[in-house]
Specification:
Helices cover 25% and strands 27% of the residues. The mean pLDDT is 94. The chain has 277 residues and is of the alpha+beta class. The longest helix has 16 residues.
Length: 277
């Protein structure tokens, strides 16, 4: 069985409080974008190793045991018996990009295994498993736009549809470290209500209200990312912002953009005809 784990972008990101557990409370809107990896799971009867993992595409550093897909498999096997499998991941989504690619791979794996082996896991059960792997991981179980609060793992429906626009996502070949992005951030109560802006304000006005607090620290360390963001506005983006803790930048356009990028940049253009697989 083959699936295509997609990424997400953040429409605004407010860091509102430092928590007692060392994490931060945030509020943001997760919006799915159809830039994808490819993930295949095959049942192999009689295979001595219950989990065989292979990969292609972008190089994933670290051991198999560090991969979120393997960790998802471990969590599932603590609840349900499944036969030996071979898992292949073709990595297309850049890592350290603020797009949630690793979380998406793990969540899609949970959904895939549940369906392939008729495990009968409920949405809540799958979300609970995914939440153990990362704050944004359970978002990809349902894979629909949400307002996310808390650590980014408490979700509420939100009315937002960007299917009539072009969404350009660019990774400027800079790995952004989330821990470093938090350094120097002073949590604060947002000036504007995120849901109200998203649901009530025209997209062309979002730039006046909708901010990503991480830009404050990341742009200082990586001015190239700010230059990239600004170039979107110079090319008629209705709204442009860094996604998550970076380093990817996205822009929302009424017309197909024609920006030129450095050769080592990776990018994806979602057109009005694109559909989440």
């Amino acid at each position: 069985m083959l699936v295509f784990p997609n990424c997400k972008i953040n429409l605004g990101l407010n860091i509102t409080k430092k928590r007692g557990d060392g994490f931060h409370d945030i509020e943001t809107v997760f919006y799915p974008v159809n830039w994808c990896d490819a993930l295949e799971v095959i049942e192999v009867k009689g295979q001595s190793d219950p989990f065989v993992f292979s990969e292609s595409g972008l190089i994933i550093n670290g051991k198999k045991e560090d991969n979120l897909i393997f960790k998802a498999w471990k969590l599932i096997t603590e609840l349900k018996a499944i036969p030996p499998i071979k898992v292949h991941l073709h990595k297309n989504l850049p890592m350290g990009a603020g797009l949630g690619g690793g979380s998406s791979d793990a969540a899609f794996f949970i959904n895939l295994v549940d369906k392939k082996f008729n495990l009968g896991l409920s949405y809540l059960e799958k979300s609970h498993l995914a939440s153990k792997l990362g704050s944004d991981c359970s978002f990809f179980i349902n894979n629909e736009p949400v307002l996310a609060i808390g650590k980014g793992n408490e979700f509420f429906p939100i009315s937002i549809d960007l299917s009539n626009y072009y969404i350009l996502v660019v990774y400027p070949n800079i790995h952004s470290n989330t821990k470093e992005a938090y350094e120097g951030i002073i949590p604060k109560t947002p000036k504007n209500d995120l849901r109200f802006i998203i649901e009530s304000k025209p997209i062309k006005e979002w730039k006046n209200y909708l901010i990503n607090d991480f830009e404050e620290t990341v742009f200082i360390k990586h001015p190239k990312i700010k230059t990239l963001r600004d170039s979107f506005y110079q090319n008629e983006a209705l709204y442009a912002c860094m996604s998550g803790s970076g380093s990817s930048v996205f822009g929302i356009f009424e017309k197909e953009p024609t920006l030129k990028f450095d050769q080592d940049y990776k990018f994806y253009l979602q057109t009005p005809s694109s559909k989440i697989l």
